[in-house]
Amino acid sequence: MSNDTKTATADKTQDRNQRRKQKAITVLAWIFVGLGFLAAIYGLWVTARTPEGFTLPNLSHIIKFVDTSHVLAADSERKRYTSLVRAQLSGTELFLIFYNGLCPHAAKFRPLIEKYGLLEHLDKSLLLHEAHAQFYERAYG
Fold first, then answer.
1. What residues make up the domain containing 129?
2. How many CB atoms lie within 10 A of CB 41?
3. To bridge 114 with a disulfide, which of 7, 30, 79, 138 should be the other Cys (CB 3.0-4.6 Å)?
């Protein structure tokens, strides 16, 4: 093997290793960003849990109750009651509902978020990225 061939092979190997290192660094960066995001959500969740106030499980149970109620025959009646609940939600609560609805454990709640437009009053400038608004199709009322 000539010196030029050996040098070219060594350069290719070095480039490949550099790309692998860069990819690993990128993956680790995304992991740390994800952990930071989870810490931020947890911080907001703890802040939002006041003695008199809001928790996501309570909200989802209320919305599910209205959705499955046999007393409310028409969807218009269901929307009226869910709009009363929606009107009580703060910006922080809407932010939490938005990102919670994207999680796998909220798979049953997400369709209700969209069906009843629970994010109608969400200030989209609060989202972590403006493109995230596209994660929901009908949740904005």
1. 53-141
2. 16
3. 138
Total domain count, the chain: 2
To 10 degrees, the CA torsion angle through 33, 38, 44, 47? -130
| Residue at which a domain ends, from 9, 33, 48 | 48
Residue with tokens 């061939």: 5
Cα distances (angstroms) measured from residue 67 to each of 47, 60, 85, 119? 28, 10, 13, 17
DSSP state of 72: -
Name the residue type at position 106. A
Q: Which residue matches tokens 């550099």?
A: 18
Q: 32 and 79 share a domain?
A: no
Whether the model clears a pTM of 0.70, i.e. scores above it, the answer is no
Backbone angles phi, psi at 2, to 5 degrees: -80, 165
Catalogue the E-assigned strands of the chain: none
Mean pLDDT (10-residue bins), the chain, 141 residues: 70 78 62 54 52 69 88 84 88 87 87 94 88 86 73
CA 10 – CA 133 distance, rounded (Å):
47
